[in-house]
Amino acid sequence: MSEHVNSVGDADFAQQVLSSELPVVVDFWAPWCKPCQDVAPVVESLAKDYAGKVRFVKLNVDENPQITGDMGIRGLPTLMLLRGGEVLHTKVGALPAAQLTAWLESRLAG
């Protein structure tokens, strides 16, 4: 994916996300999803800003139906913040950078 955002899938989700020492933002997306494409640069920017504090990963829902179903993903894009394997909060839709930053800050503080 990039220097700051990694790709995960059904096979490595538990290791890369659920077992992570750092909080993890998972971007559930699909290549055909225009809002997913719109939010991708925002996710990349946040990943740079939070490097070393929060991991950012992307999961292609078309290629990874098991985790998509297990996590109850019904709309795209879905951003899910997890810490210690637990879901802290979820945002659905392509939100502006300021809203996503505020969301992340509020959830990490709590």
From TrEMBL:
Pfam families in alphabetical order: Thioredoxin
Residues at the site labelled Contributes to redox potential value: 34-35
Top-level taxon: Bacteria
Record keywords, A-Z: Disulfide bond, Electron transport, Redox-active center, Transport
Disulfide bridges in this chain: 33-36
Residues marked Deprotonates C-terminal active site Cys (site): 27
Single GO term (MF): protein-disulfide reductase activity
UniProt-listed InterPro entries: Thioredoxin, Thioredoxin-like_sf, Thioredoxin_domain
SUPFAM superfamilies attached to this UniProt entry: Thioredoxin-like
Active site: 33 (nucleophile), 36 (nucleophile)
Limits of the Thioredoxin domain: 1-109
Chain coiled-coil ranges: none
Recorded family membership: Belongs to the thioredoxin family.
Protein name: Thioredoxin
Organism: Marinobacterium aestuarii
